[in-house]
Design brief:
single chain, 438 residues, alpha/beta, Rossmann fold, Coagulation Factor XIII, Chain A, domain 1, 3 domains, 7-stranded mixed beta sheet, 6-stranded mixed beta sheet, 9 helices, 19 strands, 27% helix, 34% strand
């Protein structure tokens, strides 16, 4: 009697990356692509008869090739329904890794396994034919991704509505702006009900309204059990979506673990790189990092407790002890309130007074009412140098991830929904009974 198929385990592997490396070879000119193989072949033929000449030919061939190791020995496993975030500085190999997993690029060595339908948003409008209309490209891309004509027609209206490009859907894609191409590409990918969704940092190009809609759609996709591989510089999105994260540096896995651990290491390395380019050197501390120009010495609640249980609208007092050099102008201390996953909910920026000489110790105190939903919250402090009119020149001097936490134990569902109340005027008036209710 034939055996019935066993149900797939809930933790089945969706993506397995095993010892993947990728090497790119480039030549100084098109002619070198012809010359280099000839030199290699000649060197091989002369290896026994004229070993000296053969060695010189081989050396000449190597000098004409530039070898770039984009990825080196990358391995990880992602199970069905998990979300993995990948962060790293520009040039660390993030996009190359995604392209290999999506099947766009072959790995030089190593293997990649994917199980299920893969949808990948790697570049704006990737896979679109610019001469065809948006509607025609929807049909072609959906077919490539595994949908038959009947399935495409059933989802076509939803795809077009989500992309929200109006009558341009019947115009050639070459007439689209980059934002329109992005919206259409994303809409196609998320409406095929993928088992694996791969998202590069292309979403950052969309406008604010589209980004909000796209993030909501990703949340809905994850709720259905889709596996997510997410690359981007939006660290809050990685905190919100991902259970795990990987930091890539120069093509290698520098560290992996929880999103908060990996993001902390990433930010440290970002500031270490800035130090090599002229800024002050970051110094590791248990709670994160600080600068030679100053830092947070301690963060504590009034009374000394490390964790507090509070009711709605109770008063919470936080103190931050700082050490700041006098030459640091436009310094500010920021105290953030984070949710349980480390996503910042709100924060208070406190401008520091001008110092006269040397280093000065300061204490910043905050008192606020815990008008928050039931849940556990953490406290973080940052010390930044940011001229008020030039925020793009902001420099983070210290990032202090404390072990302070508090819990709002009172349920506030009757007061508001979400995490905290919004100032609002409420007006309820009789509307009469003339209108029919359908």
């Amino acid at each position: 009697m034939p055996h019935s198929p066993q149900p797939e385990p809930a933790d089945a592997v969706a993506i397995r990356v095993d010892a993947v490396s990728k090497t790119f070879r480039t030549w100084a000119s098109p002619a070198q692509r012809l010359i280099v193989p000839i030199l290699h072949r000649a060197g091989g033929l002369l290896a026994h008869a004229l070993p000296g000449l053969a060695a010189r030919l081989q050396a000449s061939a190597r000098r004409r090739i530039h070898v770039h190791e984009a990825l080196r020995d990358i391995s990880f496993t992602l199970r069905r329904g998990e979300a993995l975030g990948i962060v790293g500085l520009n040039g660390s190999g993030k996009s190359t890794l995604l392209q290999i997993i999506a099947g766009v690029l072959p790995a030089t060595t190593g293997t990649v396994e994917t199980h299920g339908r893969v949808a990948a948003l790697l570049e704006l409008g990737s896979g679109f034919n610019p001469e065809l209309t948006g509607r025609e490209n929807i049909h072609i891309n959906a077919a490539i991704l595994g949908l038959d004509r009947r399935q495409v027609e059933a989802r076509l209206a939803d795809i077009i509505a989500f992309a929200d490009i109006g009558d341009y859907v019947d115009q050639p894609v070459k007439t689209y702006s980059s934002g329109m191409a992005l919206r259409l590409a994303f809409s196609v990918q998320v409406h095929i009900d993928p088992d694996i969704l791969i998202v590069d940092e292309a979403l950052a190009v969309g406008d604010a309204a589209f980004q909000a809609k796209a993030m909501t759609r990703i949340q809905e996709t994850l709720a259905r059990g889709t596996t997510l591989l997410f690359v981007g510089h939006d660290l809050n999105a990685i905190r919100a979506f991902c259970q795990r994260a990987i930091l890539l540096e120069e093509g290698r896995v520098a560290t992996q673990g929880s999103p908060e651990e990996v993001i902390e290491e990433y930010l440290y390395r970002v500031h270490a790189k800035a130090a090599r380019e002229g800024a002050s050197r970051p110094i590791r501390i248990v709670e994160g990092f600080r600068s030679e120009d100053g830092g947070v010495l301690a963060l504590h609640f009034a009374g000394g407790a490390r964790h507090l249980a509070l009711g709605y609208d109770d008063v919470l007092e936080i103190h931050a002890d700082l050490h700041v050099a006098a030459e640091v102008e436009d310094a500010a201390c920021i105290i953030d309130i984070l949710d349980g996953r480390g996503v910042p909910l709100s924060g208070q920026r406190v401008r520091l007074p001008v110092r006269t000489a040397g280093y000065e110790r300061l204490r910043v105190g905050l008192r606020f009412r815990t008008r928050l939903a039931n849940g556990i919250y953490r406290v973080r402090a940052r010390l930044v140098q940011a001229p008020a009119l030039h925020q793009h020149h902001r420099r983070v001097l210290c990032r202090y991830e404390s072990n302070l936490s508090f819990e709002v134990v009172e349920n506030s569902i009757e007061r508001f929904s979400g995490l905290f109340p919004m100032p609002v005027d409420v007006d309820v008036q009789p509307a009469g009974n003339d209108a029919a209710i359908g």
